[in-house]
Amino acid sequence: MNRRSFIKSSCKTCITVLPIYWLVQACQITKPITNFQFIQGKITLKKNEFLVQKNNQTIYKKFIVIKPEQIDFPIVIYRVNEQQFNAYSLKCTHQGCELTPYDIAMVCPCHGAEFNLKGEVTSGPAETDLQSYPIIFDNENIYIQL
Which pTM does this prediction carry? Predict the structure, then answer.
């Protein structure tokens, strides 16, 4: 295979594979979990919501999404490690569109603003970081104060 053929082949592969990857990522996040409690402004959910069984192995999801009926926008909870969880509103601070969370960032489908896993703006047009929620947890549960 000559250089020109290799480059064409590589480009075609990227053009084909990347949209499929993003589509699969998007499909994984469209269903918020419903196994949580909302009582007096506090959300309680089990830590095991992050666990997934795949090929006889237990792995951890990078994030989960919840959508309490009492608030307008979903909340994403990222599992940084066993001792750190972060929760953010999925409302873009630019013009209020609902963000799409991914393993490495949150992206606004309306105008392209991007936020890192700390809720900080990494790419405009948004200029303000995301609303975060305080989290505490114990051995079994995560508690998010709204």
Answer: 0.75
